[in-house]
Design a protein that fits this description.
With about 260 residues, the chain is an alpha/beta fold. The chain is built from seven helices and nine strands, in the order βββαββαααβαβαββα. Magnesium ion (MG) binds next to α1.
């Protein structure tokens, strides 16, 4: 018995934007694996290539060198939650959540049922026919999460999904995401600025260097699953947070 095949694997992955004297080396080279069911968090300084990595994983951008492989066991898609929510204001909440299912041509009755089920799980059952403009930021974010999860993705790709939210809401949604991913065992690659968030959520926390971002350290938060938000008050939490900050600080300071 060896390790199961990784769900996501990058080999010598890099990305450069532009060419010649204007070229910007944004990412890598980077070797990364994410096991089935694993929740991997990536922290790194601003501009180090985190969104570039997620966009490559989401199929929105090509690598310059190397490759990124996602092993799918079914035709289910990977899903990405964009930094800016990507919610359509002219669609109802239900239609937004159903969006990925419509693209997959899931029959309308089934798609509606699945979308309503996810809305209920996100506490939004009463808002199915509302328009996003009438919702709070936190509710819009939950719509985005419901939309991503409704397609039952093989891999959830999240790029600082809670960055725009206030601290309380952020904590609540972290706890919800923890519950959800521990129930569904969804393989997740999660980018965040927040060390707390990475420690609460991650099976592993990867630290990236300044641009071009490479992985310079890896830590496993010492909290067994299923875990709850209570780990925030554990002494090991504070210790790990300081340790991660010591690793990150030299990268975050302009040279
Ligand atoms: P992060 O998400 O870690 O803040 P990004 O992946 O967005 O960083 O960007 C990494 C680097 O690549 C930055 O220097 C950014 O300016 C540059 N970059 C990102 N996208 C493009 C693009 N489409 N064209 C040119 N440069 C880009
Ligand atoms: Mg980014």
């Amino acid at each position: 018995m060896g390790e199961p095949h990784p769900k996501l694997e990058t080999t010598d992955l890099s990305r450069t934007f532009g060419r010649g004297s204007a070229a910007v080396d944004a990412l890598g080279p980077l070797d990364l694996t994410v096991a089935p069911g694993e929740f991997v968090c990536i922290v790194g300084p601003s501009g180090c290539g985190k969104s570039t990595l997620l966009r490559i994983a989401g199929g929105l951008l090509r690598p310059s060198t190397g490759e990124l492989a996602i092993r799918t066991s079914s035709p289910r898609p990977a899903a990405m939650i964009f930094q800016d929510y990507g919610i359509y204001d002219w669609k109802t909440v239900l239609a937004n959540v159903r969006f990925g299912l419509d693209i997959q041509r899931v029959p309308r009755r089934e798609a509606n049922a699945r979308a309503r089920d996810w809305l209920a799980r996100m506490g939004l059952a009463d808002f199915a026919s509302a328009y996003p403009a009438t919702l709070s930021g936190g509710m819009r974010q939950r719509v985005a999460i419901a939309r991503a999860l409704a397609v039952e993705p093989e891999i959830l790709l999240m790029d600082e999904p809670f960055a725009a939210l206030d601290a309380q809401l952020r904590t609540i949604l972290q706890d919800e995401l923890l519950d959800l991913t521990q129930t569904t065992r969804t393989t997740t690659l999660f980018i965040t600025h927040s060390l707390e968030e990475a420690i609460v959520l991650g099976d592993r926390v990867l630290v990236m260097s300044a641009r071009p971002g490479r992985i310079i350290a890896e830590r496993r938060p010492p909290f067994p699953r299923p875990r709850s938000g209570d780990v925030r008050s554990a002494p090991e939490f504070t210790t790990l947070k300081s340790e991660l900050w010591e690793l990150l600080r030299p990268e975050a300071v302009p040279a």
